[in-house]
Design goal:
This protein is α/β, with parallel strands linked by helices and 428 residues long. Helix content is 44%, strand content 15%. The strands form four sheets. It has a five-stranded mixed β-sheet, with helices on both faces. A three-stranded antiparallel β-sheet has the order 9-12-11. Helix 9 packs parallel to helix 10 and helix 15 packs parallel to helix 17.
């Protein structure tokens, strides 16, 4: 390919968009192996598959969508989203703690988006100054960088895990987090943190209650000490409804408020929701950005800004899933039926994760701590080498920065031991 082609037509940022998506590239390699007759194992894509290899679909959601009136399929949604869906989004983000937050005077707003990716875009476009750095874990979902660079933002990272095994917070390097946060506050008048928790992509890591509180207190302390610096904590909740503590963050936030922690005007918490995973409607592109703050005037302003940004980007998010899930969850029977199906799908992940951990332990494969969600992780300095060695055994995983992502969501239970065996062989 001529890299100078279109130079007179494309701007400099457009010209920088090269290469293929790593995840879909390895998925294509898996598909090619199957096409050529290999008994291959697919640990590449981030979609939940049944043990027979078909896409896992929440039957309750599927039936509800198919029963939707034609007008709810064809019509535009309001620019900010259907009111019933926006109300549901707040509940999906906060769970049973929502009412108590209302009682504590916490104001909240929601904007419907095309998937969780749309929510991330809204945050990147509005909560940081152009040229700023956004604080991320050093292991994160690769497309984060694309969302940030598209909004002329860069990133700063802190260590995924503490160096000290005796840390009271085993799944977050709180000292490195504080140091990087302080550094950004000294250089920027807005600081945004993106934290995918619980059920982190790509590791399956989830913070403990103590870890969540340590992170929250660190941000609150920073906001209090740097009153001229805006602080936004974005919780990427793409997989939270498959976690053991799906609403652990809202519990932690509520506890901090009830204990009297100062929630300053310059501190915002926002949730990026994705119904792709929780309701198995990947292609209907439905999500929301839910923001909470003690000052209603702040959330009202955010509501306006996000609505205008959406209008100027995708106009309105798709309507049919907003209508369907809000109608379904409006009744206790519908919500319970969805929940039973969600529990069934969650059990697929739990069983696969437990078997992988057990199989890796037997073979001395140093799997990273992993708790919830779609993925597990092997930390390694040469991830490409490990992934290629696994591919030679017809096991397809995804090499990323710092390690190899194992898509438990896609691997049938019976093939989990093959994944552990391939990793053990690759590590020799």
């Amino acid at each position: 390919m001529n890299h100078d082609a279109g130079a007179g037509l494309l701007n400099s940022y457009a010209q920088s968009k090269v290469g293929n998506d790593t995840i879909f590239g390895w998925w294509a390699r898996y598909q090619e192996a199957v096409k050529n007759g290999a008994d291959a194992v697919n640990g590449t894509i981030g979609a939940l598959l049944e043990d027979d290899g078909t896409l896992a679909i929440n039957k309750v959601v599927d039936e509800a969508i198919r029963a939707a009136p034609p007008v709810e399929i064809a019509a535009y949604a309001p620019l900010k989203g259907l009111p019933a869906f926006l109300d549901l989004a707040k509940t999906l983000a906060l769970g049973d703690h929502r009412g108590a937050m209302d009682d504590c005077g916490i104001s909240m707003t929601a904007t419907a988006t095309p998937g969780g990716s749309g929510a991330l875009f809204l945050a990147a476009a509005n909560f940081a100054n152009r040229g700023d750095k956004v604080l991320l874990r050093d292991r994160h979902w690769g497309p984060y960088k694309g969302f940030l660079s598209g909004c002329d933002l860069d990133s700063e990272v802190y260590a995924l895990l503490p160096k000290n095994d005796d840390s009271p917070y085993p799944f977050v390097d709180i000292e490195d987090f504080k140091a990087k946060l302080a550094s950004l506050c000294s250089k920027q008048d807005k600081v945004m943190i993106w934290l995918n928790d619980p059920a982190h992509n790509p590791t399956g890591l989830s913070l403990t209650p103590a870890g969540r509180m340590a992170v929250l207190e660190a941000v609150m302390e920073s906001a209090s000490a740097n009153e001229n610096v805006g602080h936004t904590l974005l919780l990427d909740s793409a997989y939270h409804l498959y976690a053991e503590e799906p609403h652990g963050w809202s519990q932690t936030i509520l506890e901090s408020v009830e204990e009297g922690w100062p929630w300053t005007e310059n501190f915002l918490i926002t949730f990026a929701l994705s119904l792709s995973k929780s309701h198995t409607i990947y292609g209907l592109r439905t999500g929301a950005l839910v923001s909470i703050h003690p000052d209603a005037e702040v959330t009202e302003k955010i509501d306006t800004v996000m609505g205008v940004t959406g209008r100027q980007t995708w106009s309105a998010a798709p309507r049919v899933a907003q209508y369907t899930v809000s109608e379904m969850h409006a009744s206790s029977e519908g919500g319970e039926a969805w929940g039973l199906e969600r529990d069934r799908l969650q059990s697929l992940l739990v069983n696969r994760r437990n078997l992988l951990k057990e199989s890796c332990e037997k073979l001395n494969v140093p799997l990273n701590p992993t708790h919830d969600g779609f993925f597990a992780w092997l930390e390694h300095d040469e991830p490409q080498k490990i992934a290629e060695a696994c591919a030679e055994q017809d096991v397809y995983l995804v090499p990323l920065t710092g390690g190899v992502r194992i898509g438990l969501c896609a691997v049938p239970l019976e093939h989990i031991p093959r994944v552990a065996e391939a990793l053990a062989h690759a590590l020799k």
